[in-house]
Amino acid sequence: MARAIIEVRNLRKEYPVEDETVVALDRVTLAIPQGQICCIFGESGSGKSTLLNQLAGMEKPTRGVVRIGGVPVSKLNERELAAFRQKHIGFVFQSYNLLPNLTALENVAMPLMFRGVPKERRDRVARSVLKRVGLGHRLGHYPRQMSGGQQQRVGIARAFVTKPEVVFADEPTGNLDSKTKTEVMTMICSFARDFNQTIVLVTHDPQMAAYADRIVTLLDGRIVSDQINQGVTVQSISAQSIQSAQSDQFVQSVQPTAVPSASVPSVQTV
Ligand SMILES: Nc1ncnc2c1ncn2[C@@H]1O[C@H](COP(=O)(O)OP(=O)(O)OP(=O)(O)O)[C@@H](O)[C@H]1O
């Protein structure tokens, strides 16, 4: 089995609410191997978003540790976290979170700009990723000029344009109709397979969970089931099995006490 890129040990998250304490997560231990599409599944209030927030370093756990590529993200400060996310993490959001005053091309090129990729190259790469998601004819469109499905495809292009090792997808199909849901999930899985990326997908929708390799079910903040998905919906998507030198470099480069300074991965072939 591939090595774990995400490791969660004995995670607990409490929220103080007036004079009570809500325990949103308790004793969550999880190892997600590199290249796995792992679904965090559960009904409303089960703790899915709370878990994603701890994994992505958006919130500090009350107890326990989250490591990504060996880096204890739960212990990094804000500046270190920002740098870490920029280099290694992509996000796909339910509400797309595109910048309204930027075109599709500019939204997708933005993560490359933060990595210092020169304009000509970042525009070329962003264009090619937008073509891949079927939006080659919408490069100059603003979010308000696109449908929800098109906006989410821009969101996917933005999340994958830098080939991050891990992509967190929080209810990425939550606002979409059923045909567009299928397209969006197929796209996410296709990118992930091509570059051996790890996806953490949060959903309460069993149809979307069926795309994952593994389904971890939460109930009242605890893992109540952890199953390999035998009938993976995306089996038909070709995996180019790039046993990514990129990811190997990443795992080797990270030091527990320092934010890695990984170079910009080659994005030419996207
Ligand atoms: N900031 C907060 N303050 C207080 N309680 C919170 C906070 N965030 C989450 N909770 C509580 O933690 C529990 C888990 O919430 P969480 O949002 O993680 O569930 P979820 O599975 O993502 O739900 P949904 O599918 O509805 O988004 C709930 O009982 C919720 O009320």
TrEMBL record:
- Check the UniProt entry and state the signal peptide residues, or none: none
A single GO molecular-function term is: ATP binding
InterPro entries in the record: AAA+_ATPase, ABC_transporter-like_ATP-bd, ABC_transporter-like_CS, ABC_transpr_LolD-like, MacB-like_ATP-bd, P-loop_NTPase
Q: Name one GO cellular component term.
A: membrane protein complex
PROSITE patterns, per the entry: ABC_TRANSPORTER_1, ABC_TRANSPORTER_2
Occurrences of domain ABC transporter (ranges): 6-245
Q: Which SMART domains match?
A: AAA (SM00382)
Report keywords, A-Z. Answer: ATP-binding, Nucleotide-binding, Transport
Instruction: Note the PANTHER family from the entry.
Output: ABC TRANSPORTER ABCH.1, IMPORT ATP-BINDING PROTEIN
- This protein is called ABC transporter, ATP-binding protein
Q: Which organism is it from?
A: Bifidobacterium breve DSM 20213 = JCM 1192
